[in-house]
Specification:
Elements: E1 3-7, E2 11-16, E3 23-29, E4 37-41, E5 49-50, E6 56-58, E7 64-67, E8 70-72, H1 76-84, E9 90-94, H2 107-116, E10 118-124, E11 126-130, E12 134-138, E13 141-146, E14 151-156, E15 170-174, H3 180-183, E16 190-192, H4 196-201, E17 214-216, H5 232-245, E18 252-259, H6 263-275, E19 280-284
Parallel strand pairs: 4-9, 11-18, 14-18, 16-17
Antiparallel strand pairs: 1-10, 2-3, 3-9, 4-5, 6-7, 7-8, 11-19, 12-13, 13-18, 14-15
Helix pairs in contact: 1-2, 1-5, 5-6
Length: about 300
């Protein structure tokens, strides 16, 4: 039987916030079964902020969560890494308001967890098993979840630009055969250099650099090392979507597909899942219908979600 997991011992990192530009120290600490992923800011009230879709407070160029008046910014890459390593429970301590961007991918967080080790807990994992299609849209952008035995994800990146047009814009991965660690987690954030002044005008990307993002010029990639994968751009969009969906609080059994979707639409899809109680069921790791091991499911919400 698959059991819930946490880290075996604390792990530490120091970096900068990609949007605030300020240094931040982060510690990953073990948490007991049923905790979920929670963030604690050591510079403020120290009240836990639960990593849940209904706590999402901002989706402008990243995903931020808030609870009890406390905000945590840019959680998606860490959440994606935790999904990829099947970490169910974790206490994330921060010295400031933003998760450090590290190299712009999920790989440094994967390495932190691997260095800390993984501990199995005495409680079975639970999953959200999709029973019927759930879809959302916003303009031309679309995102959906459909029934599937396992987790499959696809994403289509749409951008008419001389650089982007040279690289794949569609990725599909069945994670029973595709290694998240080997093939996805290293995909970095990216952006057009011409859009950087506009982002900084709204106090975003103040800490962005070629050390934590792929810079795209008018005709070339500006990073001397180039891309890590030929399809790094679209894989990063998939990485983001996985992190945003893990804010449901449990891993999904189903097939995700995104077309031009970003953090806002990904969160809208998570909310659609929460509101569509007839479209999914809770499953335990052995495939049987699960009772609620964390809190009572009511009002269309998932375990440990909501109020």
């Amino acid at each position: 039987m698959l059991r819930q997991r946490t880290v075996d011992r604390p792990a530490h990192a120091i970096g900068v916030g990609v949007h605030t530009g300020r240094p931040v120290r982060m510690t990953l600490r073990p948490a007991p079964a049923g905790t979920g992923i929670e963030f604690v800011r050591l510079d403020t009230s120290r009240r836990p902020v639960r990593a849940l879709a209904d706590n999402v407070s901002d989706t402008t160029l990243s995903t931020s969560i808030g609870e009890h008046g406390v905000q945590i910014a840019t959680v998606e890459h860490l959440m994606s890494a935790l999904w990829g390593l099947a970490i169910d429970n974790l206490r994330v301590e921060l010295s400031g308001e933003e998760v450090p961007i590290m190299d712009g991918s999920a790989a440094p967080f994967v390495q932190m967890v691997q260095a800390a080790g993984v501990r199995e807990l005495n409680a079975p994992r639970q999953f959200i098993k999709i029973r019927r299609e759930i879809s959302v849209s916003q303009g031309q952008a679309r995102a959906s979840l459909k029934p599937y035995d396992g987790f499959r994800a696809g994403y289509t990146f749409v951008a008419n630009h001389p650089v982007f047009n040279r690289y794949p814009k569609r990725v599909e991965a069945d994670f029973s055969r595709t290694s998240y660690v080997g093939e996805v987690c290293g995909a970095r954030s990216f952006g057009l250099m011409r859009e950087l002044p506009q982002a900084r005008a709204i106090s975003k990307c103040l800490g962005s650099s070629l050390q934590n993002a792929v810079g795209v010029g008018e005709h070339s990639i500006l990073n001397p090392e180039g891309l890590r994968y030929e399809d790094e751009f679209v894989k990063h969009k998939l990485l983001d979507a996985i992190g945003d969906l893990y804010l449901l609080g449990l891993p999904v059994l189903g097939a995700f597909d995104g077309y031009m979707s970003g953090h806002t639409l990904n969160n809208k899809l998570a909310w659609a899942v929460l509101r569509s109680r007839d479209a999914w069921t809770l499953m335990s790791a052995d495939g049987a219908a699960a009772g609620d091991l964390r809190a009572e499911v009511s009002a269309g919400t998932l375990p440990h979600a909501g109020g």
